[in-house]
Amino acid sequence: MLILRVDDRLIHGQVIAGWVRPLGIHSIILASDRLIHDEWACSAYRLAIPDGIEFSCYAIDECVKHTNTGNKKRVMVLVESVREASELVKKGISIKEVNVGGLGYRNGTREIAPYIYLSSDDIESVVYLHSIGVKVTGKQLPNSATVDVVKKLAGIK
User: Fold this and answer.
1) Where are the alpha helices (H) located in the chain, listed in sequence order?
2) Could you report the per-residue pLDDT of 46-81, keeping only the tens digit for each?
3) What CATH number is associated with residue 88?
4) Residue 147: which H helix or E strand, with range?
5) Helix (H, G, I), strand (E, B) or coil at 64
6) Domain count, the chain
7) Number of helical H runs and strand E runs in the chain
8) Domain around 12
9) How high is the pLDDT of residue 125?
10) For residues 80 and 133, what is the distance between their CA atoms, to the nearest angstrom?
11) What radius of gyration do the chain's Cα atoms show?
């Protein structure tokens, strides 16, 4: 099982307590071309990972190589933006759904849900993912109501 989650806060309590533990995630991968050059940040995120769960910090290209190995473990890949999720898909990550778990308000963003604010770049990436058959959903926790991001963008209830 592979979960691709967009969350601008990356690793925090909701991810660990609400997703990783209940779903039995074995490995967390932080995929970021920006963070891969910040050894301090990757080390700090590593401190938030509970014992027994693997943690890696990879550039987008490296992440694709490490997730498409046929590994049967439960893996969660975390990215900061829908654009990064879209890049992973373009470069070959095998996924059917992208979960947008949290994108905070920024100037020029559009509210999709109280926890999802999309920039024009994010919207382009959502449209791209939808056009190739990847579902884009909003969900804070596994048992939370699912938001169909594409329908929300189109104004459909």
Assistant:
1) 13, 21-23, 39-47, 60-67, 82-90, 120-131, 149-154
2) 999 999 999 999 999 999 888 876 667 899 999 999
3) 3.40.35.10
4) strand 147-148
5) helix
6) 1
7) 7, 9
8) 2-154
9) 97
10) 21
11) 15
Q: And the tokens for 154?
A: 């189109």
- Residue 103 has a pLDDT of 95
Instruction: Give the pLDDT band (50/70/90) at residue 156.
Output: confident
Structure tokens at 115: 């926890």
Q: What is the dihedral of CA 15, 4, 58, 35, to 10 degrees?
A: -60
Tokens of residue 15, six digits? 């991810």
Q: How many residues does the chain have?
A: 157
pLDDT digits (tens, 9 = 90+) for 4-24: 999 999 998 889 989 998 999
Contact 139, 146 (CB under 8 A): yes
